[in-house]
Design goal:
Elements lengths: L1 E5 L1 H9 L6 H8 L3 E6 H12 L6 H5 L1 H8 L2 E3 L3 H9 L7 H13 L3 E2 L12 E2 L1
Length: 128
């Protein structure tokens, strides 16, 4: 069974607007043979964005663990290895949440389902 890690925007679009997902991304997430990983960093990012008014679905943030479980997704915790790897990444990309997802994808050797091309710079296989 293979795994993919989904980016935060991919997670939001899955729950709130599947029409924003590419057909390929939707098929990957719907495929029950693929384990869909959701990083704890995505939950952290959404909570912060909700707090500062950049994300308006407080209900989704408050129920995210349940929603992820109901979808059959698997939580990916942030480990010390991930943190050190994210902090050690070179390059100009400064978004700490993207850096964490990059580190997690590299550590697990899994592709990321994302429209964001920043992952390409770091040698992460991106599916969209």
């Amino acid at each position: 069974m293979s795994e993919v890690l989904i980016d935060t925007h991919t997670l939001i679009w899955w729950f709130e607007g599947r029409d924003k997902l590419s057909g390929k991304a939707r098929k990957i997430i719907e495929d029950r043979e693929i384990v869909v990983l959701v990083s704890a960093a995505s939950a952290w990012e959404l909570a912060i964005k909700c707090q500062i008014g950049k994300f308006r679905s407080r209900e989704l943030v408050d129920s995210l663990d349940r929603e992820i479980e109901e979808e059959g997704f698997v939580e990916l915790p942030v480990t010390i290895e991930h943190a050190v790897r994210a902090g050690s990444l070179g390059g100009l990309h400064k978004d700490p949440f993207d850096r964490m997802l990059i580190a997690q994808a590299l550590a697990r050797i899994v592709p990321v389902v994302s429209a964001d091309k920043c992952f390409d710079t770091y040698g992460v296989r991106r599916l969209w």
